């Protein structure tokens, strides 16, 4: 019972694992102290619902101490915890995309059509309103398949001396922003061999049809497994680890102009304005016949121009990729969206964990603790997003201010 209540507290206080307002120099102990302090301050009826044992002398419910939390969390199998938390998020469902603001609702009534969960501090999340407006102005292309991004991250604060910082490979859902699966990468290997067991855990019962990944996973064996064993489409970035395929893609996609490709239905240009910058992404595609890459159907090139709103500070980036999705399933506009959403993982997942939860500053190193705390951060972020929240820092303040709100966030 004591271990069970410790895990329940960790799940609830996953809203604040890693500490949201730590300063440089704070160690892992301070992060765990925040969890323990939250439990100490919780009302007695809430502790009873969490299964905390009653002190036989005082009659009061006693939450687990910081030492108990540390010991239990450090002994948990991180990969098994990932499987269970991801299954929980999958079974509890999500709020889906926020409905687009059609402009037919009077300005004074718009807050009323936004989910009650988005109301924080008496007002509606500003970012939620922005998402609604963007959904109206820039809807996702018709026929988009659901996708997930295989992406690795290093928990930098947990490394010390000769012990390297642990690395985690995760699979966030593009649209929902929920992590479908996560695995710790062994010290003597890399992300590539861990992709197959990750997909085996994460794709069961999932609506994901497309797996996107960076150049590290552009390996023939990975592509073959995604297509044959999992029956999914892959969208992979090509770099120097596939020199022959990359050279062939560069040569084929050099032919013609962007206007020619758009007229032929093998090109698309996307213009975007936001976050103080202008961005233009131009994609062109070509058949992947004869490249010798497993199940490849198309190759593509994306040229990305970014500049400030006044036109200064311009930069250009060129990326090549390959996919087994045929043109009738994923045209240029779909491939452009898949790649753009894959690049967005850095902001939606890594930035939130590093800046909002201060993951890289957390120096918890004992046993499985770095992996477990990262999993709890994913759980909290996923629960927020499935309840319609966009600003994760805003949502954390909302739920930690009133302990009872957490019972509505997690179904216990």
Describe this structure in words.
The chain is an alpha+beta fold and 412 residues long. The protein is built from 15 helices and 11 strands. The chain has helices at residues 2-12, 28-41, 44-49, 66-75, 78-92, 126-137, 191-202, 220-228, 243-252, 258-263, 332-343, 345-356, 369-386, 392-401, 405-409; strands at residues 119-120, 123-124, 147-154, 167-172, 179-185, 210-213, 233-238, 267-274, 277-287, 298-308, 315-323. The strands form 2 sheets. A 9-stranded mixed β-sheet has the order 5-4-3-6-7-11-10-9-8, sandwiched between helices. Strands 1-2 form a two-stranded antiparallel ribbon. Strand 4 and strand 5 form a beta hairpin. Helix 1 packs across helix 4 (66-75) and helix 5 (78-92) runs parallel beside helix 13 (369-386). The chain is globular. The two termini are 15 Å apart. 42% of the residues are buried.
The helix-strand sequence is HHHHHEEHEEEHEHEHHEEEEHHHHH
Side-by-side strand order of the widest sheet:
5-4-3-6-7-11-10-9-8
Radius of gyration: 23 Å
Structural class: alpha+beta
Distance between the termini: 15 Å
Major beta-sheet overview: 9 strands, mixed
- Give the averaged pLDDT, no decimals: 82
Q: Give the proportion of residues in helices.
A: 25-40%
- Shape annotation: globular
Which spans of ≥5 residues are poorly predicted at pLDDT below 50? 1-7, 17-27, 96-122
Strand content: 15-25%
How many strands appear in the DSSP assignment? 11
| Number of helical elements | 15
